[in-house]
Design brief:
single chain, Immunoglobulin-like, 128 residues, mainly beta, elongated
Length: 128
């Protein structure tokens, strides 16, 4: 069944940051923060149920993270509303990527997934 994106439309924007003071490159520890803004651009209120992340480092090592909500919350977004949160991850390489999805449930009972496009995690001056 195709989901009508005019009714069920959650937009996800991502900003990333390298956290140098928590990182230790000599020990292959690179800490990144990411700030996610989730916005309901559809016409039906919806609640975020679960998250699924695929985190890949520069060596191709992949880690999957699944869980309820985000940062301990399951935001309920009315049309036009947004929710912003910051979380983080640790990589063994100075470059990596993340992608994933959120499972949502609309107030009318329809469950749908919002894809999170791949984004890059990178220390400064690594990628030009």
């Amino acid at each position: 069944m195709a989901i009508d994106t005019r009714i069920y439309n959650i937009k996800v924007d991502v900003q990333t940051q390298y956290i140098a003071e928590q990182s230790d490159p000599e020990d292959e520890r690179y800490v990144f923060a990411y700030t996610i803004t989730i916005r309901n651009e559809g016409s039906v209120p919806a609640k975020l149920l679960t998250r699924h992340w695929i985190i890949t480092n520069a060596n191709g090592k992949t880690q999957e993270v699944r869980g309820e909500g985000v940062v301990g919350e399951q935001p309920h977004l009315k049309p036009g509303e947004g929710f912003r949160y910051t979380s983080g991850t640790v990589l063994e390489t100075p470059v990596g990527s993340m992608q994933g999805s959120y499972q949502m449930v609309a107030d009318d009972g329809v469950k749908f997934y919002t894809k999170i496009a791949p984004f890059t995690l990178s220390t400064p001056h690594t990628i030009h």
